[in-house]
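Appendix C reproduces, verbatim, an entry submitted by the partner laboratory led by Prof. M.T., so that reviewers can inspect both the input and the predicted structure.
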Amino acid sequence: MAQNHQISKYVLIKDLLKDWLNGFVLVLLVSLASYYIAALPMIAKLHLSPLIIGVVFGIFASPLFRNAQESCEKAVVFSAKKLLRLGIILYGFNVTLGSIASVGLNGIVLSIVVVVAILVLGYVIGVKFLKLDKEIAILVSGGSAICGAAAVLALESSLKSKPYKGIIAVGTVVIFGLLGMFLYPLAYALGIVHLNLTQEGYYIGLTLHELANVVGAGGAISPQTQEVALIVKMIRVILLVAVLLVVPYFFAESKEGERRKLHIPWFAFWFLGVVILHSLVALPEVVVGIFRFLSAFFLVMAMSALGLQVDLKKFLEFGGKAFVLALILFGILTFGGFSLVYYFV
């Protein structure tokens, strides 16, 4: 009897390990392939982040996941949810309170104006005029307003929305983030944008979606522009904490029309704690570098896992309206952001 119990316990442990191992191997392979592709010279010139490549690879590999869903689902869902949150927490090692203070009150106020305006306008335009799903509208708006894919992932986790909605939002903000990264330096070089180097840094930091977009566009103009742009961008990243608290409470409703139970995104507070720690404690550069790498890698794994869970039919069904919303918000950011910088910086 005891022997049978031991055998059944062994089989159970073996099955659990197999389920988790299969899923992690699949996510890991997609993630490593994403890093490899991102490092290729031609792709590196385009500043395509492994985050973006990971979600695309994940979508293409989604049939594999669906065929082996029973033996992979636990690890894939864990990667998309838990590793995502850990990656966002560790992302705090990219930000310091000192860098935020260096752009002064002006940078903070303008960042708040941009984030609030894009969130509100995106929700109103998406839901009221485009008749878009509320959660998709919020996710597209959040990605446009704050920090692209990372913001979409964090909001998706707080809202507990279905994976395909997050993928739709990521796809749209990525397209217009890349477009802006190439257009901004070109417009500056042609003299279309009449801003000095510091103002251009504000403009890029306030309006481009991804951190990679900001690095690419700012660096194409000047080191001074890139530095200012990164600092302003990091203020928008910090505002993610407030958005994660406010948005789920005001906008997340159940199908029955009743207010959904508020899920407090504790990982946002941990993220803020890491920012404070990184600002006040002089950790060895090697340690900070390791944490930054782990943050990036966990986020790539999360994106890959989200891509694996995508239902292409639903993606195509809702993707058109989300693209239109992202286009409208890109236009508002481009022209509205220029006006803010031109008159207030």
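The chain has 16 helices and no strands. Additional entries are available on request from the coordinating office.
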